[in-house]
């Protein structure tokens, strides 16, 4: 059965949905954003207005089911944790809608988002730093073409710094 993957920019109208996802048992241990709604609203509004990142909803057959943050490493907490380049991008993701868990969709979704990020011709690497305890997502990143570099201590977690090189990604998925 063929599924259509698409992304759209997230907006303030999506706050209720994203807040619900942040409170799911499979999400909050890794995102730490299971905040009361007023606090989450402040966080989400700040994220939406942050020019260094873009927020997206991932959809399967037009149904919003995942949340994505694409960001520039330059100016992020990752800057300086490895020899970064000005156009390196990073990505965060979660599958929020439980109906879509365990269906093998994380890899196809990640592939499409990485392909989208590489549409910026100056981007050579896409970085990720999944929670070091999140073995399922680390496996998905590796399968997509991300190489584990090292553990990194970040404000809310210990992440596994991972890098996906454009040439390797295109070789693997062209």
UniProtKB/TrEMBL annotation:
InterPro entries in alphabetical order: Acyl_CoA_acyltransferase (IPR016181), Acyltransferase_MbtK/IucB-like (IPR019432), GNAT_dom (IPR000182)
Pfam families assigned to the protein according to its UniProt record, in alphabetical order: Acetyltransf_8 (PF13523)
Parts of the chain that traverse the membrane: none
Protein's organism: Rossellomorea marisflavi
Function: Acyltransferase required for the direct transfer of medium- to long-chain fatty acyl moieties from a carrier protein (MbtL) on to the epsilon-amino group of lysine residue in the mycobactin core.
Lineage: Bacteria, Bacillati, Bacillota, Bacilli, Bacillales
Stretch forming the signal peptide: none
GO MF annotation: an example: N-acyltransferase activity
Pathway stated in the Swiss-Prot or TrEMBL entry: Siderophore biosynthesis
Biological process terms in GO annotation: response to antibiotic; siderophore biosynthetic process
Record keywords, A-Z: Antibiotic resistance, Transferase
Domain N-acetyltransferase: 5-167
SMART domains per record: AlcB (SM01006)
Annotated protein name in UniProt: Lysine N-acyltransferase MbtK
């Amino acid at each position: 059965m063929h599924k259509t993957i698409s992304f759209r920019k997230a907006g303030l109208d999506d706050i209720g949905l994203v807040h619900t996802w942040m409170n799911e048992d499979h999400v909050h241990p890794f995102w730490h954003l299971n905040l009361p709604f007023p606090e989450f609203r402040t966080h989400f509004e700040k994220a939406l207005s942050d020019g260094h990142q873009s927020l997206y909803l991932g959809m399967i057959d037009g149904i919003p089911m995942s949340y994505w943050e694409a960001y520039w490493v330059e100016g992020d907490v990752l800057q300086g944790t490895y020899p970064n380049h000005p156009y390196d991008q990073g990505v965060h993701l979660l599958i929020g809608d439980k109906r879509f868990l365990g269906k093998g969709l994380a890899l196809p979704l990640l592939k499409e988002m990485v392909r989208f990020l590489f549409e910026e011709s100056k981007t050579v690497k896409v970085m990720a730093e999944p929670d070091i305890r999140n073995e399922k997502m680390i496996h998905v990143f590796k399968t997509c073409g991300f190489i584990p570099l090292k553990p990194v201590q970040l404000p809310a977690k210990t992440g596994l710094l991972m890098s996906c090189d454009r040439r390797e990604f295109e070789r693997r998925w062209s």
